[in-house]
Amino acid sequence: MAAYKPVVVQACPKLGEKITQDTLYWRGYKTPVQIKEFGAINKIDFSPVPPYNYAVTASSRIHIYGRYSQEPIKTFSRFRDAAYCATYRDDGRLLVAGSEGGGICLFDVNGKAPLRQFEGHTKPVHLVGFLSDKYRIFSGGDDYSSNLWDIPSATEIISYSEHTDYVRCGCASKVNADVFITGSYDHTVKLFDARTKSSAMTIEHGHPVESVLLFPSGGLLVSAGGRYVKVWDVLKGGQLLVSLKNHHKTVTCLCLNSSGQRLLSGSLDRHVKIYSTTSYKVVHSFNYATSILSLALSPEDETIVVGMTNGVLNVKHRKPEEKNENSQKKRQPAYRTYVKGRTYMPKQEDFCVSKPVKRVLRKYDKLLRSFQSSKALDAVMEPPIMLHTPEVTVAVMQELHRRGTLRSALAGRDEKQVNLLLTFVARRVIEPRFTPVLVTVADMITDIYQPVVGQSEIVDKQFLKLQQAIGKEID
Amino acid sequence: LQLYSCSLDGTIKLWDFMDGIPIKTFTVGTKLLALYTLASAEDSVFVVIPKKGERDTFQLVSVELTKGVGQDLEGKELSVVLDDVGASMKHIAFGREGAYVVSVKDVNLQVYFFKRKLLNRFSLSTVKTKGGDNRFSCVVCHPKEDCIATGHADGKIRLWRNFHHKKEYTYSTLHWHHDIVMDLAFSMEGTRLLSGGVESVLVQWHNESSCQKDFLPRLGSPIEYISMSSDGVLCCTLHTDNRISIINSNLRFSRSIQGLIKSRDVKTGLVVDPRTKALVLNGEPGHLQFYSLQSDQQLFSLDIVQRQYIHQAGLKQSDLVKVAFSARGTWLATVEESEEVADPELQLKLWFYNEEIQSFELNTRINTPHDNHITDMCFRDMDELGDDSLILVTTGRDCVFKVWVMVEDTDPEAQQSVSWSCDFVGSYHNYQATNCCFSEDGSLLAVSFEETVTVWDSLTWDLKCTFCHPPGNIRNICFGRLTCSKYLIGATDYGFLCCWNLLTCALEWSAHLNVVVLQPDPLSEHIAAVSWLSKESSLFVFKPNEPRPIYIQRNLCKEKIRLAAFVPRDEPENTEKYLWLRKSQLFFLTDTQELMTLSTKSLEERLTPSSKQLAVEESLPVTPFSLLLGKHRHQQAQEDTDFGKLVVHNKQKQASPAVKELLHTPAHVLPSASFLCTIFINSLLISKENKSAEEVADEVEMESEKAEDDSDEEDVTAMEQEDTSHMELLGEMTCKLSKSQEKELRKIRKMDYSWLSAL
């Protein structure tokens, strides 16, 4: 004798991307906040100290935003022309920015007027940054030169003119206070040591370099240019580790997450891709409305800020961790009751009688088991089932059809139920996996309720909808 | 322990069923269709015989059994009791203490009172109103009261009372069954009535009221017969698929006795499971049965369709149509389809054998693998390469063949590491693909497309060459094996058997033969071809390299052989005469689902181990070669028409496992000897008085003890063998007739037997 076999619900494998830990993590952001700036946003930099304000460089201004503020809490607008690359110092108290005119300004984040001004570049300065000893600034300009400045005296320490095109990006090493790198449109990335007169290393990227990044350990270097993101091993003399080609337009910005496990790249193709730094595979990607110029991630990945070419700043905050502690917990039986008798070990001469395992059947299965076709159909016509698991409804319909009782189950329903049925059929009949069953159902419904057409407005409307849906599909 | 049996050849035999020896034979002369005995009239039996001179009318007669000495006696003294009775034994029942006999036929009920010599007739209206159908299907009598229960074709059960009077009779109706009531049975005291039908639900009615009833649902297949044990502890149901279920009195399923399950249609073919060497074919609807040929037991039944089977006529249920095993038996591919002709709902399932749970687990399910019916399916058999190179090919009527391969899932989080997906779709001039077959080394795939055989390279899926032998579609193809691997054999609709040489791409030879089944032996070069010509099947065994068959057996059997399979032997048989049967044994399945085999031994040789088996086998045809083994499984339906049959006791069957259990029970687990002793002695007493089911175990103990006492172990083995063969051949009935216990026996109403000769 066999037990009742529940209805087989055809599970359909979910198409598209699989849900991984990464997807869940990166999806955990709220809907973005959009802030309109005056021009293309060329740099976003988070303050390394709490409360993690961030400086946004756009057009001739530098705006400082607080974590949740939509309005800038501070603005530096003492620029005659466009400002570039406003960058925080490690302690978050100083801010440096280049300008179209070739000057570099150093600000106190609390002050207004520049503390220092460094003059020396003859062309716009797109790159400025602090070395990790906090007292020196490096810069790169469209005059092909990369300079090193002393903050206290506001003088130039050294100038390297090794690039043969605009220097547009660079970064300083966090482990060595003398080392910084610059990337240029001459397709190369150069590593400079302040103690030497010339570059220590040259890496050929192959495309105009838009962004460079050093890993916190200083061993790996990431360069972005053209459609490529390339990872180089600095310690092995600049050997190419991996070349990633996941964007279909120029990659403009790079950024690491706080743990250093994920690398983010933004591109003109409106995508931000997230790579795992162990496998260098794309684990997630974001879509944006327009081309991306700059990208920054706050410490602890709390906020993703993306700057676009049309001057829109897109800010995403992480959702607060959901607290699953339901105040009204079901009262569980006391531990003592729970373990009662469970720890008993049967003795050798004991005769064991096992408790039969109770099988839990779904409501429709219980009804089908007792051949209550109409009620079984009722059970799967409840809105939550119809809406979220249409395959269950269809499976029960199929089972009823197999038993030859579908017609009688469909018949004799009131206006509301017919409406519900027709809505479901009209909506799902075009899905290929449901079509064979639902076509039969639609056929039967039209057959059964043909005589009453015209008596109810709602039902008539649903019939028309069904007709439209089928007509559209046939066309 | 004696048993009466009657057969169509007009003899009643009295058996000692324990030893399987016929004691007496009474010759009556006419066909005997059903047999009844009464405890009150021991020296006469009642039989149903056809009425002389009229077709399809039968009468119930009583036969005096003379107490003469000697083996063969004549039972001539016939006296007609009732005229115009039904041929089925379910249509007659004897009332309380044999006071009256009831017979039903169509819509008429006849009651004959023996003492008063009074015949009462009652009839119901013949008009079929609103799905009602008053025809009787079965009848039983209450064991204690004057009450008759009748089952009807529309599922109603009527309880008749007061039928002593012609006019003032009454009846009440119980209705639950939606289709014909196949059989009814009263409990010992008559308080409970059991009924069963095609719904395969056993219904228990309490106190003849329609509101109090219990059900035992999903017994597997329609119930044909129900019978209660004389002490009311057990009840057994006999099903249409050749199975007996034993049920406790509290309506709990206790166990089932089954051999080869008869399915509605064996669509899967005969397949041999490489792992267990069991024969695999359709079992219960939607199930695959693994039938062990050695032990004549169903090893297990694998649920393939995994849907609730509704026992109702006219439903389009899906069933299993194709089965294929990989060479090592680790993978199983099944195809199921619904019965709808136009739009079959196809599913291809791939099962992986899980060593831990010792069963097949579903790995991949493919919906609609083909747009039309799947005609054939085969795995690429490559033993040495392991499972990675496993390829499955399916051919369909949608004019393509598809190649399925295993794909490893790279995602570590996936539940299973491999799954199957389609790799290649091939077609040939838009012809329907009908058969497929891999060569022995797996390098070539032959697919037949209607009239043409195409040969494909299994590495590149290039079409290598085509063969054709018009007219007629290709019915079967197979590659030669071992030394003959360069040959491809094909059989066509128009009765040609062709052999093509793959090296020269030319026809090697062809023969005019209407081949129905073409089956290569996996362990040798031999190929068996079964032909069907003018109502007889013939067997030809040949090697592909020579057109002369090495063995011909004409007139193998009268029925059409549908399927055949070579089952590898455990150890090669030493036979001079039939070299081709050395490594494997050939089994056939006929249209009526009889399983047959060819034996290498002659009749005498096989009979020597148990001379008593002769009694059973004497009715088998003694052809020079093909004496068919006693594996005949007659369809239940056939039995109904041919022989009356009623299963009263099944103790014999219960006994054999119980013996094992007892003998295998370690001595230290057994209770003390003094405790056992009383039970044992009691059992001896009781078993002679009343063979109740409770004492089965004790009785078994007794038997084994006896055997030991006699120190005649051969006897035991012989008996056991006898048992199994009996099981297969007859619906076994046991009944004890002992002169000293006549009074006890009166209480036992039903004593019946019949036996089925294995024609």
Structure commentary:
The complex is a heterodimer of chains A (475) and B (759). Chain A has helices spanning 21-27, 335-339, 363-369, 373-380, 383-388, 390-403, 406-410, 415-428, 435-449, 457-474; strands spanning 33-36, 41-46, 54-58, 61-65, 72-76, 83-88, 94-99, 104-108, 116-118, 125-130, 136-141, 146-150, 155-160, 167-172, 179-184, 188-193, 199-204, 209-214, 220-225, 228-233, 239-244, 251-256, 262-267, 271-276, 282-287, 292-297, 303-308, 312-317. Chain A is an alpha+beta fold and 475 residues long. A four-stranded antiparallel β-sheet of chain A has the order 1-28-27-26, with no helix packed on it. In chain A, a hairpin with a 4-residue loop joins strand 7 (94-99) and strand 8. In chain A, helix 3 packs antiparallel against helix 4 (373-380), helix 4 (373-380) runs antiparallel to helix 6 (390-403) and helix 8 (415-428) runs antiparallel to helix 9. Chain A is elongated. The mean pLDDT of chain A is 87. In chain B, 43% of the residues are buried. Chain B starts with a strand and ends in a 12-residue tail after the last helix. Chain B is mainly beta and 759 residues long. Chains A and B meet through helix 6 of A and loops of B.
